[in-house]
Amino acid sequence: MQHGTVKGPPLALTMGEPAGIGGEIAAKAWWAVRAAGPAFFLLGDPALVKDAPVALIEAPEQAASAFPHALPVLPLPLAAPAMPGLLDPANAPAVIASIEQAVGFALAGRAGGVVTNPIQKSVLTAAGFAHPGHTEFLGELAGTAQPPVMMLACPGLRVVPVTVHLSLRAALDRLTTDIIVEHGRIVAAALRRDFGIAQPRIAVAGLNPHAGEAGTMGDEDIRIVAPAVEALRASGIAARGPFPPDTMFTPRARATYDCVLGMYHDQVLIPIKTLDMDGGVNITLGLRIVRTSPDHGTALDIAGRGQADAGSLIAALRLAAEIADTRRKAACP
């Protein structure tokens, strides 16, 4: 097999929250990439797509031929008509089914990867959804042996929080040396497998201001973080730190690593969203399938107004295709 550009199956795009901007940004993304790709199809109610021609399909295999002319949609009807900005728990089962079907297609090799539109977790929780978010649900569906890990990426920066959707107090209670090491190993493996980086460089953020300043601002960096860095280095991973978080994201610092491993959610999500809110992509590491998503929410406040920016979804589609291509090339003899 040649190691040039490898084209695989189309990407599966979930519909996300029907009352949000998923349908709008799906249409805008199709207009943006229809000529050069990557090809994708939407699993959802065709009525959500207002501003693009739609081609109804019955199987993922029909998406590629339809894509240059219309947005392929594999119909998944809603229980109630979607009203922009107005949440309806009756539609939660269809939202969940969209994710389940997309993952199923990817596991079967019928979709090159899964790109997920934003969901409204409160609505799904009210309908009995027992997961904190997409990442945990996808981990269950894909049957991973290790917990999935959330990475946020934009041109020039990749970040991974060790603790995610927890209060700051709960995050401090959960943080251990073993969890940091586990995340570091998953990140290093993903950088090699999905991004083609042969020798990944990981910068580990300290927990406290100035990384604790030799214990004068808290001893957690000495007791918890530094031993994790040492363990990662002992296993052959180029990890460094803990570094003072307030100086890790300057242009000069970003040139010295391939990914930042942060201790809690806002520590690393604030910098990346400040740098590139419209182009940031959420990637789930450690899955058997490729999964990306836009780095924003459902935007109920602007749903139905034509104001949504599809930049993050477009970036998520392109990055999913690149990761899938990297994996296929690595599998070539």
From TrEMBL:
Miscellaneous note of the record: The active site is located at the dimer interface.
Function per UniProt: Catalyzes the NAD(P)-dependent oxidation of 4-(phosphooxy)-L-threonine (HTP) into 2-amino-3-oxo-4-(phosphooxy)butyric acid which spontaneously decarboxylates to form 3-amino-2-oxopropyl phosphate (AHAP).
Pfam families: PdxA
UniProt: a divalent metal cation binding residues: H165, H210, H265
Predominant subcellular localization, coarse grouping: cytoplasm
Cofactor names: Zn(2+); Mg(2+); Co(2+)
Cofactor note: Binds 1 divalent metal cation per subunit. Can use ions such as Zn(2+), Mg(2+) or Co(2+).
Catalytic reaction annotation: 4-(phosphooxy)-L-threonine + NAD(+) = 3-amino-2-oxopropyl phosphate + CO2 + NADH
One annotated GO molecular function: magnesium ion binding
Record-level GO BP terms: pyridoxal phosphate biosynthetic process; pyridoxine biosynthetic process
Pathway recorded for this protein: Cofactor biosynthesis; pyridoxine 5'-phosphate biosynthesis; pyridoxine 5'-phosphate from D-erythrose 4-phosphate: step 4/5
NCBIfam families: pdxA (TIGR00557), PRK05312.1 (NF003699)
Subunit composition and interactions: Homodimer.
CC annotations in GO: cytoplasm
Protein's recorded name: 4-hydroxythreonine-4-phosphate dehydrogenase
Name of the top EC class for this enzyme: oxidoreductase
